[in-house]
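Example record

One chain of 182 residues, shown exactly as stored in the release files.
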Amino acid sequence: MYFEKPGRDNTDTTVELAYERAKALGIDEVVVASSKGYTAHKVLDVFKGFKIVVVTYHSGFKEPFQSVMPESVRTDLEESGATVISATHALSGVERSLFNKYSGGYPVLIIADTLRLFGQGTKVAVEIAIMATDGGTLSGEDIVSIGGTGKGADAALILKPANQSHLFDLRVREVVCKPSSF
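Predicted structure tokens for this chain:
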């Protein structure tokens, strides 16, 4: 499915479509990007019986030494059965600091920008799958990965996850949904 515009208004439909496709394929793991808990709670409401991994920004992403996800939200998600990981962005990390200081082109940032050709939510869905894999939370089987543009969710992928050290083993099997205009 293609959405006319990116953004939070697509969250409910994205989560429902992802759930239906995961059920049809026999997938039982879902990875979702969430910073304040809105999208993660939507996934928890729909994906009953699934292993749910919530990926959020690393500490210091917005302000030094501060988490973006409130601790109360993290605790609530974990008590509801989700695994929550905070991790450095797999497709920028320390390269972004080099770019900011020295300018120039860096391979990982080029990969991220290439994925953005399919939309920000698609890039996020790939990136969080890598981060969840690096965090040791996935089995290695195909997963559903849900990302978004800004707030909420607007992209869902079926993919074979891989660690960042084996990035090119990752396989995007299906695009469940994404915006067509972005």
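Notes: Helices lie at 11-25, 38-46, 71-79, 93-102, 107-115, 120-134.
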